[in-house]
Amino acid sequence: MCRSELAYSMWEQENPLTEREQDILRHLAQGSTVGEISGALFLSPGTVRNYISEIMQKLEAKNRIDVVAIAQNKGWIET
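RE: above sequence
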């Protein structure tokens, strides 16, 4: 590994989110409500809120808007 690849790999961060969490995050990025997400993914609203809370903890985000911004900046979801 050359020096530039090593430097890049130190900055590159792996996506810590599960596939389901990424699904929910994509819906959040589109502006969907908890109710809309629960209907689209066949989950209860409480389960969706739990997933959102877990996503926020993993990304160390303050709120849902912050979660989307962090994921977009890291290239984990489309901007």
